């Protein structure tokens, strides 16, 4: 097993994103102090979540993205429904038909080949 496959090593690697000084102070803290820090960080996390929910600018941007995405998501839903209908039609004729993902994968490959 390589170091990159070791889950503990991956976890320790992630912790490198935290400031070294903070990590060292937490390693030297008493157990009760660590619990207090966990509580403070948890409270800060909940406060961030609440601020995010109450952020009018973010809500506006989310709505803009949702509106801008509608033609794409509706088009995709319609196209998937068409493929499902056609697959069902072929299956009713006794054909052994792959699932939608196979058709989409083949279509993506075809598009990539056309671009080359």
Number of helices: 5
The radius of gyration computed from the alpha-carbon positions, rounded to a whole number of angstroms, is 26 Å
Order of helices and strands: HHHHH
Q: Portion of residues in helices?
A: over 70%
Mean pLDDT: 92
Biggest pleated-sheet summary:
none
Q: Between the first and last Cα atoms, what is the distance in angstroms?
A: 39 Å
What shape does the CA trace take? elongated
**Stretches with pLDDT under 50, minimum 5 residues:** none
Number of domains: 2
Class from helix and strand fractions: mainly alpha
DSSP strand count: 0
Instruction: Report the sheet-strand fraction.
Output: under 5%
Notes on the protein architecture:
The chain is mainly α and 116 residues long. The chain has two domains: 3-54, no CATH class; 67-115. Helices cover 81% and strands 0% of the residues. The chain is built from five helices and no strands. The longest helix is centred in the middle third of the chain and has 37 residues, at 56-92. The mean pLDDT is 92.
Characteristic terms for this protein:
2 domains, 5 helices, mainly alpha, 81% helix
Would you summarize the structure shown here?
The chain has helices spanning about 5-15, 20-25, 30-55, 55-90, 100-115.
Protein topology:
Layout: H1 7-15, H2 20-27, H3 31-54, H4 56-92, H5 100-115
């Amino acid at each position: 097993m390589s170091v990159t496959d070791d889950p503990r090593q991956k976890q320790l690697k992630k912790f490198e994103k935290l400031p070294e000084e903070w990590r060292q102070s937490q390693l030297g803290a008493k157990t009760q102090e660590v619990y207090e820090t966990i509580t403070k960080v948890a409270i800060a996390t909940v406060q961030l979540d609440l601020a995010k929910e109450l952020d009018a600018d973010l809500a506006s941007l989310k709505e803009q993205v949702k509106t801008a995405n509608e033609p794409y998501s509706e088009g995709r839903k319609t196209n998937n429904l068409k493929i499902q209908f056609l697959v069902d039609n072929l299956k009713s004729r006794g054909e052994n038909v792959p699932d939608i993902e196979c058709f989409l994968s083949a279509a993506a490959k075809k598009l990539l080949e056309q671009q080359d």
